[in-house]
Amino acid sequence: MKLVVRNDDRAVAAMTARLIADLVKARPDCVLGLATGRTMERVYGELVGISAAEGLDFSRCRTFNLDEYIGLPPGSVHSYRTYMNEHLFSRIDIPIGNTMLPDGSAADLVAEAARYEDAIRRAGGIDLQLVGIGETGHIGFNEPLSPFTSRTRDITLAPGTRRQNAALFDGDIDAVPQRALTMGVGTILEARRIVLVATGSAKASILAQAVEGPVTSMISATALHFHQDTLAIVDEDVARHL
Ligand code: GLP
User: Fold this and answer.
1) ipTM score
2) Quick one: fold of 2-235?
3) Who is most buried in 57, 128, 131, 143, counting CB within 10 A?
4) Which residue has the CA at smallest separation from atom 9 of ligand 1?
């Protein structure tokens, strides 16, 4: 794993967005793996800015998101589909049909997970996968004890994750779904390049464990040490325990 420490969250977002923009310019038909959460809002803000300034053409890109909640009503403002539409897809030039998320409202979640894996495979795999890190050390929604070989599947969210993500549900932890569909750790590790983005002092301890601690399925992010091309882009606040 390579690690770059930038001054602040803005510089982290700018560098991450620049990497994505450069890939889209070099390979207009690239396959992007995308993530959600507050950290990524800034990344997408920067990417939208670069896209407008430099006329980026996303029309041939395809995107696959890491995860989606299970059990939200269709069109929920809290779904990751809505998040992605608002923060990125409606603000760049990408056909919405090229943007994929697992369908958390599918009647048969096992079939949906298999369909999602198959769609990634048929797209030729993911060129660049963005990942954040949760306070449980999860990537995607791969909570502690997710096998490193795991594939897209239905997972029960850890209480700490629901608490952390309650901020995006107006602070109401009871409104945060109990379950999600997530790419597995094994699915994520198949991306050709992985970019881990982390900012803010609240995650300093888990980032240090992910980067410097022993590899363990208790912290899914440590699986990234098995990947040949992972770049962590972090700010000084989150790097303080390294
Ligand atoms: C959710 C997502 C994760 C993301 C995490 C971090 O749990 N499923 O993929 O890494 O949020 O969120 P934030 O950036 O808001 O701290």
Assistant:
1) 0.95
2) Rossmann fold (3.40.50)
3) 131
4) 140
